[in-house]
Amino acid sequence: xxxxxxxxxxxxxxxxxxxxxxxxxxxxxxxxxxxxxxxxxxxxxxxxxxxxxxxxxxxxxxxxxxxxxxxxxxxxxxxxxxxxxxxxxxxxxxxxxxxxxxxxxxxxxxxxxxxxxxxxxxxxxxxxxxxxxxxxxxxxxxxxxxxxxxxxxxxxxxxxxxxxxxxxxxxxxxxxxxxxxxxxxxxxxxxxxxxxxxxxxxxxxxxxxxxxxxxxxxxxxxxxxxxxxxxxxxxxxxxxxxxxxxxxxxxxxxxxxxxxxxxxxxxxxxxxxxxxxxxxxxxxxxxxxxxxxxxxxxxxxxxxxxxxxxxxxxxxxxxxxxxxxxxxxxxxxxxxxxxxxxxxxxxxxxxxxxxxxxxxxxxxxxxxxxxxxxxxxxxxxxxxxxxxxxxxxxxxxxxxxxxxxxxxxxxxxxxxxxxxxxxxxxxxxxxxxxxxxxxxxxxxxxxxxxxxxxxxxxxxxxxxxxxxxxxxxxxxxxxxxxxxxxxxxxxxxxxxxxxxxxxxxxxxxxxxxxxxxxxxxxxxxxxxxxxxxxxxxxxxxxxxxxxxxxxxxxxxxxxxxxxxxxxxxxxxxxxxxxxxxxxxxxxxxxxxxxxxxxxxxxxxxxxxxxxxxxxxxxxxxxxxxxxxxxxxxxxxxxxxxxxxxxxxxxxxxxxxxxxxxxxxxxxxxxxxxxxxxxxxxxxxxxxxxxxxxxxxxxxxxxxxxxxxxxxxx
Length: 713
Ligand code: HEM
Known about the structure:
Layout: H1 4-7, E1 14-17, E2 21-24, H2 43-49, H3 88-97, E3 111-120, E4 139-147, E5 164-171, E6 174-181, H4 194-202, H5 217-225, H6 230-237, E7 251-252, E8 257-260, E9 266-275, H7 284-293, H8 297-307, E10 313-322, E11 347-358, H9 362-367, E12 380-382, H10 386-403, H11 484-492, H12 495-510, H13 515-525, H14 530-539, E13 572-577, H15 583-595, E14 599-604, E15 610-611, E16 617-618, E17 622-623, E18 634-639, H16 645-661, E19 666-668, E20 687-689, H17 696-706
Parallel strand pairs: 13-14, 13-18, 14-17, 18-19, 19-20
Antiparallel strand pairs: 1-2, 3-4, 3-11, 4-5, 5-6, 7-9, 8-9, 8-12, 9-10, 10-11, 15-16
The structure holds protoporphyrin IX containing FE.
Protoporphyrin IX containing FE (HEM) binds next to β4, β5, β6 and α10.
């Protein structure tokens, strides 16, 4: 199943032009998914098609539809005279322009997504009557938006942050929105705290900096003084905070929901998305540098993979807990700052989401999409998880503000695929023309329609959970263990993940100016791990904290990325090449890489094609200047002749040094041998030489599959 996408892959990167030339490279600039035949034909896409408009080849008109004769000059009294106020067309053009932005999301402002389809693997009717999970093979259209939380819309993708995924399932029973985060725990235990943590994190209160990072005094002041937040922050400081790709992102619902079956029996449930490509991360140094080199790194990566036909896939898992087991564990299953260990509460995989269509209009499809955890369908309900309860009213409130109208559900991207009828008629931007004059109930004039539907015929009815208790502002004592699970997470990390987590803490706390805040944080961190706290204390120049960590030795393999599947397919190789390369050797290698689904970026000294020993030409995608060793997962050093040989060699040496230092696979072609000096490198693991190696292609693909070679220094 995992390699499904490789089999259906078409060879698009290498083709012959006449008999003479082989061109390698991707013509992404000419062909994108929007120009191709729609790859996914589902009911939601057909609905969206009604709103998709192409303006190419059409006359320019005013908004009311009058053809325009001049779109370049304002109306004037003489060509050198003053402008005329009667230029209504100028006013129309300009007044639209100055209103082109809407308020950005207060959190998750930066994001991007795609469309796809969810296929159910197995019937879940024994636990939920949700129709989209009712039978194997059942397909449901889905739109997805990934996002960071901290930064504004114009910030960068690779910032260390908690990445999120909103998935809107357009089911035949109405929209179901599943919101998840790339960590299984939340930074707050009570929704009342959410504005506080975001105020501290975003730094919007005064000077407006820094952007897109929590590496500043106020955020860490918050953490030190709100110990419940340490658990999620430890996840964020780990490699989970700097993912390689949205395609490689695991994400959890965090909140506990209820499944309810036909018989009215409820089960606690948490959801998790498991990426088929496994979970993989950048290094901190890469994440920071890519922020400048390509702020759109993640959205470009998602778009490119879909355009090339390598559709990102995620399996949906559910963790189920019978109601009678509510108090079985040593953590509170309603506490959003605690995860449900897979090893204790297994994940059942129930289906797969495939993203197979890029967006055409980011604003219409992604800025206007509105996810809401309150959007559930019959068979899904809410537990008493306090954060979930708090979220249920927040989203509609903020979206009415952000999108400017209570009618936003009717925007093409948000509207359900099933019919929807209600008694609303007015409000800003009303699209529908509801022709009935009776919009109240009970009525006799319309025979009391639109009518209500009994639960047994599909009407939503809330699960009749029993509630009791005194009115109180308070938090359950069962939420008070902040350190045990944080330590379990730490115990579960591999040595290299631990090292990277130490770097994460040391970098972020190293940016904190207040010594007191730095000290308070290591004093808190010592509860998780003494060594971790002592190393970080040394790195950030504060006293070693007193005391030691909680006495917990449990660890769970599921929490480490080390155990994640790895594939060569969709990883990027940068081919460093000049004229005079060995045509046969290089073309064979590129073909082999291509057949294995490796994404090839050919990098040369300029954008002219490079010419090989027998006249074969290869298309160059990027130059040494426009690309970077940070933007590829591996390099293939071909070398050759440059216009300025010294500069050419120097550029390649830089790519080799950075790739080597970031533990990336390096393939060396026969002609590239002279550019790589083995004796200058302490460990040649992951460096694959073509010279005298008939299996070079296979060995290089194996190295690319392994992704990193941590033994190097
Ligand atoms: C008290 C807790 C929380 C509050 C107050 C809160 C608030 C918000 C707000 C105001 C938005 C912006 C909505 C919009 O403008 O469309 C948002 C979006 C979102 N939230 Fe939360 N949130 C909370 C917890 C969570 C949790 C626990 C998760 C998931 C596990 C989550 C996942 C998301 C996602 C996926 C989005 C959508 C981003 C998008 O449109 O792409 N949030 N949240």
